[in-house]
Amino acid sequence: MKAVQFEEHGGREVIEYGEFPDPDPDRDEVLVDVKAGALNHLDIWTRKGLPGIDLEMPHIPGSDCAGVVEEVGEDVTRFEEGDRVALSAGVGDNRMDDPTLDPKFHIIGEHVRGVHSEYAAIPEDNLVPVPEGVDWEVAAAAPLVFQTAWRMLIHRGELQAGEDVLVLGASGGVGHAAVQVAAHAGATVYATASTEEKLEYAEEIGADHTINYEEEDFSRAIREETDGAGVDMVVDHVGAATWDESLKSLAKGGRIVTCGATTGPNPDAGLNRMFWNQLSVIGSTMATPEQTEEALELVWDGTFEPEIGEVLPMSETARAHEIIEEREDFGKVVVVPDSEL
Questions:
Q1: Mean pLDDT, residues 37-49
Q2: pTM of the entire structure?
Q3: What is the pLDDT of residues 160-172, one digit of tens each?
Q4: For the chain, which terminus, N or C, has the lower number of CB atoms within 10 Å?
Q5: For the chain, what is the domain count?
Q6: Does 152 share its domain with 138?
């Protein structure tokens, strides 16, 4: 088969698309004929190299895909040949409310070989059914960002109807999912983006107020919009570049929920503001199977709509990385095996 792969960490030049041994599914795995995959920021970080993660090389990236079951292992009971499926990439139990939290929790594509290839052998427990009529691009683009946003806002952040929530980077993968989740929950949604086109899109998917962070400090704009009160929740997956302004945007007793730090993980903590205003910081990663099902049911029925910014052949995955790194487009970037085009 052909697969996206790299043999060392580095810039986009390390990405290749070429021959790779066909996967041989274990007893509890399903061999999937991949029809589409989607990229996330974690693909960029994995390519560059994440501290503490020693990947088997060559590494196949990719934590989102959808396709057709080609073969099932002897112990597989939930799927059979011909079923339509999508990947839910978290392996193990990552629930912070469970004292049996799995210390071996990891993510397919980030810690182990991923799914941006013509075929992928995937554990049965990491697959979700995809209804007929759902486009492959949508099925590939939805799982990671919508389950992440759903758990982050609804289960970890406990967002309530009537609250004010600020979503940073509202046109990106997790950002555009978070706007839709927050609007669905009945919150008043404030959203930031860098261009008028992206701001208009944020309004189309549920934002009530938008802020161009290239033209003004979003914390100042939030104070003006809320008569100095601030918002109840900030969804910050950006990190170091936005942390201080995120804290300034919160009302007393407010909370930040975060699932990532694309601009760096070590901002000034702002402890004085945190304790004085009695703020909470809530971390969240991926979702449980039940939470993933909750979120994806709302994708499959059309309540939530993943935005597909670009569809490229897998042989142009380096270009897909460039689009994400340079923030050239909004929504998800999807890659399709060249053999499917």
A1: 95
A2: 0.94
A3: 999 999 999 998 9
A4: C
A5: 2
A6: no
Domain that holds residue 162: 147-283
Q: Give CA separation, 237 vs 57, 168, 175, 258, 273, in Å.
A: 28, 7, 8, 5, 20
For residue 25, give the CATH number of its domain. Answer: 3.90.180.10
Strand 90-91 relative to strand 188-193, pairing: unpaired
Percent over 90 (pLDDT), the chain: 86
152 and 265 share a domain? yes
Q: Residue 300 domain-assigned? A: no
**129 vs 147: CA distance, rounded Å:** 15
Which residues are CB-contacts of 153 (< 8 A; sequence separation ≥ 6)? Answer: 159, 165, 178, 181, 182, 185, 233, 235, 257
Please enumerate in sequence order all residues whose Cβ is within 8 A of that of 101, keeping only pairs 6 or more positions apart, or say none.
93, 94, 95
Terminal alpha carbon distance of the chain: 15
Nearest to 62 by CA among 334, 338, 279: 334
Does 55 fall in a domain?
yes
pLDDT for the residue numbered 98: 64
